[in-house]
Design brief:
The structure holds two protein chains of two kinds. Chain A is 34% helix and 11% strand. By secondary structure, chain A is an alpha+beta fold. Chain A folds into two domains: 3-111, Roll (Ubiquitin-like (UB roll)); 118-244, Orthogonal Bundle (Fumarate Reductase Iron-sulfur Protein, Chain B, domain 2), CATH 1.10.1060.10. In chain A, the strands form two sheets. Chain A has a five-stranded mixed β-sheet with strand order 2-1-5-3-4. Chain A has a two-stranded antiparallel sheet with strand order 6-7. Chain A is elongated. Chain A starts with a strand and ends with a helix. The model of chain A has no long low-confidence stretch (mean pLDDT 97). Chain B is an alpha/beta fold. Among the domains of chain B are: 266-400, Alpha-Beta Complex (Flavocytochrome C3, Chain A, domain 1), CATH 3.90.700; 473-602, Fumarate reductase/succinate dehydrogenase flavoprotein-like, C-terminal domain (Methane Monooxygenase Hydroxylase, Chain G, domain 1), CATH 1.20.58.100. In chain B, the strands form six sheets. A five-stranded parallel β-sheet of chain B has the order 5-2-1-9-17. Chain B is globular. The model of chain B has no long low-confidence stretch (mean pLDDT 96). The chains are: A alpha+beta, B alpha/beta. Chains A and B meet through helix 1, helix 2 and helix 3 of A and helix 3, helix 5, helix 6, helix 11 and helix 12 of B.
């Protein structure tokens, strides 16, 4: 099939950037979306033009590197799917596709479709961990965890840190991202000791990094490739309120 | 030269304790005076950086990704082995050790593997303490599953994302140290060279992938945790960015490269769908717990699977290996799939595929149980192929997945360059000629959390801190070299893209240095690779400049190294006149097609020394001696 692409091209952080039209020819429905872009890039290189730069690595939906807004939707039209796992059978001959980077105050564009997500790093560094030193820990089965809690922790821990939630949110909020980490540790006994400090530090960090607040649009949940639920944001709020009580 | 692995003497179970007593320590007040560079932040790198930072060393960590959470360890699905024996099914440290040695076809160092089996238990404890949400049973205890190459259930797992959860555990520990200021992180930064001063590793030269700046970092010791080189095959299950450059640059600076021909072709991957394919996707080996591999009995049977009656199907693994069946080790399962496809009984449009069928398991356990066990894998399969594996069998085929070869290290994980340590998949490691499933996570974390903190102290205690700064002539030379090479790549202005060369190299490697090799195919590869390399340096096109973000330039540097490294692999495979583990030489097989190992002549590690650009590398041997296991024909029948 043949497609018309409008791709965001931006030379660097200072360049205002713009959508440029490109053609994608002879695309097979079995190709992944990124393989389609590979093909377009091969053509651009042969024509002596600058290829489109985009972030990607594992191409199996787990590393969280790929980050494109396709036709206005972070990660594109297929639910619970990263861009790298999106296949061209979701499109048809003659389609026009708009491809843009994550757009959020806290994620400045580096070049074309690549953004700087260091703000997420700072949120995790502010408290997204259990302070267990290497060694000197109890036997793994000494800590019993109800299956229900272990499953909830795992549901939350599936977050791949891609940032689609932020890109989809009209407020550019990182609540879903932070909530997933807070929930994972809040439901586990190992995480209880630092629970108050953790939720406070992570919330302050979100604010400091320029992320907005949650106002219940649920766009984050709708685009999350791992199905992280907004109910975790409620958990985050409850944890935060609990942390204020002395 | 005969290499000495420096295993401690004494009984197997006491070796590591003995070594720990022998090693020197660095006192707490002195630790911060030492700077340690860690390259790579997958399981090995993140766990090492976190632990060394915690101990008080001054750590600089580097990764090419935008975040350390994205190392390719994250893609490991199935699980991590440990000898906890929680299910009480007869497991022990010795049994895990034995299974790993046997699984590796008796080409690993006994003392290392025993240490790995011992530390496996500490890893599970550590991960649980960090909040890794392993699967639990209803009483709240940890759950286990079985995996290829073992008859006990010793694999711990977090759904189909065990690597992700373990990496996020190590990443969170690392993030804590970054906040504490003991670790400085350099993301989107790629190592281009190792700097060796007076014979010791004292720093690295890197390229900032955003600004294009080339700069150096000096340290008292360097740890490479840079993963494997399966992307030499172009198509593999590795991440697109996985590469051999850091390890290969160290090789060119004097570190020996061990057993480069030991590569693992994983049996359960989604088959190639066309020329556009950029990578292959693994379906966890855990699927073989409930899935049955089969092909039609007759050649060229084009019927859809439902129409092929039971008696016209060949469950070839169950037929050939009744005691292990579908859980035969990876190398054996892969080769068996290749065999049936070479016979013309392969399935799918290309004929290079076999079925992995869950119908029996679904009938026995119900679709709900299968969904709970493998739901995310079935979903991923459907996304890629558009097929529903609950209703029709999966199609799978082997793909390059893991590399057992790597930089040679002694028992202390130190390479032949003093001060250069190599961890995780990047080292020639504990897996011999074939790695068992769920053992890579175990090794990366054992190296990073528990081994390197002791062994690096032993090295540092014997060398003073701050020996050389980045103004040293060796650093200057290294930066100039990196600049020259970059400018050379940018100024060729040829007609073929980097990808075209990489794809071509992959075709040579897969066809001639792949799952089955012959003297003829290897010699032919040794002709073709240098030809392709010469063409690359005359006809590649790399657009853009070096002074900015340039993904084509990054790829070009990596492919240039693969074009040299592929030759070393072929050379190593040609000299090893035996079949063992993942290395199958067609000339050396039993009448029934099983691998024919030659312990009399090849019970050694082949460690290659770089001897100059136009000179043949020299092979050195580390003899492997087995005091605690009997060398046996590896049978899974």
């Amino acid at each position: 099939m043949n497609l018309t692409l409008f791709v965001w091209r931006q030379k660097g952080p200072e360049d205002p950037g713009r959508l440029k039209q490109l053609e994608a020819r002879d695309i097979s429905p079995d190709m992944s979306f990124l393989e389609m872009l590979d093909l377009v890039n091969e053509d651009l290189i042969k024509q002596g033009r600058d290829p489109i730069v985009f972030d990607h690595d594992c191409r199996e939906g787990i590393c969280g590197t790929c980050s494109q807004v396709i036709n206005g939707v972070p990660h594109g039209p297929e639910e619970r799917t990263t861009v790298c796992q999106l296949h061209m059978r979701n499109f048809k001959d003659g389609d026009t596709i708009y491809i843009e980077p994550w757009k959020a105050k806290a994620f400045p564009v580096i070049k074309d479709l690549i953004v700087d997500r260091n703000a997420f790093e700072h949120i995790i560094q502010s408290g997204g961990y259990i302070s267990a030193h290497t060694g000197g820990v109890p036997d793994a089965n000494a800590i019993l965890i109800a299956k229900h809690d272990a499953d909830t922790a795992m549901d939350a821990a599936e977050c791949i840190g891609c940032g689609a939630c932020v890109a989809a949110c009209p407020n550019g909020s990182a609540m879903l991202f932070a909530a997933a980490k807070v929930t994972q540790f809040a439901v586990l006994p190992q995480g209880a000791v630092e629970a108050k400090k953790r939720v406070n530090s992570m919330i302050s960090s979100m604010k400091k990094e320029g992320f907005g607040n949650c106002s219940n649009h649920y766009e984050c949940q709708a685009v999350c490739p791992k199905g992280i639920k907004v109910s975790f944001i409620a958990k985050l709020n409850r944890e935060f309120i609990a942390s204020l009580k002395t | 030269m005969i290499l000495d692995g420096k295993s401690p003497s004494g009984p197997l179970s006491e070796k590591w304790d003995k070594r720990r007593q022998e090693m020197k320590l660095v006192n707490p007040a002195n630790k911060r005076k030492y700077k340690i560079i860690i390259v790579g932040t997958g399981l090995a790198g993140a766990s090492a950086a976190a632990t060394l930072g915690e101990l008080g060393y001054n750590v600089e960590a580097f990764c090419y990704q935008d975040s350390p959470r994205r190392g390719h360890s994250i893609a490991a699905q199935g699980g991590i082995n440990a000898a906890k024996n929680y299910p009480s099914d007869g497991d022990s440290i010795f049994r895990l050790f034995y299974d790993t040695i046997k699984g590796g076809d008796f080409r690993a160092r006994e003392a290392n593997v025993y240490r790995l089996a011992t530390l496996s238990n500490n890893i599970i404890d550590q991960a649980v303490a960090q909040g890794v949400p392993f699967a639990r049973d209803y009483a709240g205890y940890l759950d286990n599953r079985s995996f290829g190459g073992a008859q006990v259930s010793r694999t711990f797992f977090a759904r189909g994302q065990t690597g992700q959860q373990l990496l996020l555990g190590a990443y969170s520990a690392l993030s804590r140290q970054i906040k504490a200021g003991t670790v400085t992180l350099h993301s989107r930064t790629e190592m281009l060279d190792l700097v060796v001063i007076n014979g010791e590793a004292k720093g690295i030269t890197v390229r900032d992938m955003v600004t294009g700046e080339i700069r150096s970092y000096a340290a008292d010791s360097v740890c490479l945790c840079t993963g494997g080189y399966a992307n030499v095959f172009y198509l593999s299950t590795n991440a697109m960015g996985s590469n051999v450059t850091a390890a290969y640059r160290a090789y060119k600076k004097g570190a020996f490269f061990a057993n480069p021909c030991f590569t693992q072709i994983h049996p359960t991957c989604i088959p190639v769908s066309g020329d556009h394919q950029s990578k292959l996707t693994l379906m966890s080996e855990s699927l073989r717990n409930d899935g049955r591999c089969w092909v039609p009995r007759e050649k060229g049977d084009q019927r859809i699977p439902d129409e092929i009656p039971e008696e016209e199907r060949d469950y070839y693994l169950e037929r050939k290996y009744p005691s292990f069946g579908n859980l035969a080790p990876r190398d054996i399962a892969s080769r068996s799939a290749k065999e049936v496809c070479d016979e013309g009984r392969g399935i799918g449009t290309s004929g290079y595929g076999v079925y992995l069928d869950f119908a029996d398991a679904i009938n026995r356990l119900g679709a709900g149980v299968i969904k709970e066990r493998y739901g995310n894998l079935f979903e991923m399969y459907e996304k890629i192929t558009g097929e529903n594996a609950y209703k029709q069998p999966m199609r799978i085929y082997p793909a390059p997945h893991y590399t057992m070869g790597g930089l040679w290290v002694d028992y202390n994980l130190e390479s032949t360059i003093p001060g250069l340590f190599v961890l995780g998949e990047a080292n020639y490691s504990d897996h011999g000629a074939n790695r068992l499933g769920a053992s890579a996570l175990m090794q990366g974390l054992a190296d990073g959390y528990f081994i390197i903190p002791g062994t690096i102290a032993h090295y540092l205690a014997q060398t003073g801190p701050g020996k050389a700064g980045i103004d040293h002539p060796e650093f200057q030379k290294s930066r100039e070299g990196a600049h020259d090479r970059m400018h050379r790549l940018l100024s060729i202005n040829g007609k073929k893209t980097v990808n075209e060369f990489h794809r071509e190299l992959g075709r040579i490697m897969w066809n001639k240095v792949g799952m089955a090799r012959t003297e003829k195919s290897l010699n032919s590869a040794l002709q073709e690779i240098p030809r392709l390399r010469a063409e690359f340096w005359e006809n590649v096109t790399v657009p853009g400049s070096g002074a900015a973000l340039n993904q084509e330039l990054e790829k070009a540097g990596r492919v240039a190294d693969f074009l040299e490294f592929g030759e070393l692999m072929a050379r190593d495979a040609l000299l090893r006149n035996e079949s063992c583990g993942g290395h199958f030489r067609e000339e050396y097989q039993m009448p029934d097609g099983e691998a024919k190992r030659d312990d009399e002549h090849f019970s050694y590690v082949a460690a290659w020394e770089f001897t100059g650009e136009d000179s043949t590398p020299e092979m050195h041997k580390e003899p492997l001696t087995f005091e605690n296991v009997e060398l046996a024909v590896r049978s899974y029948k």
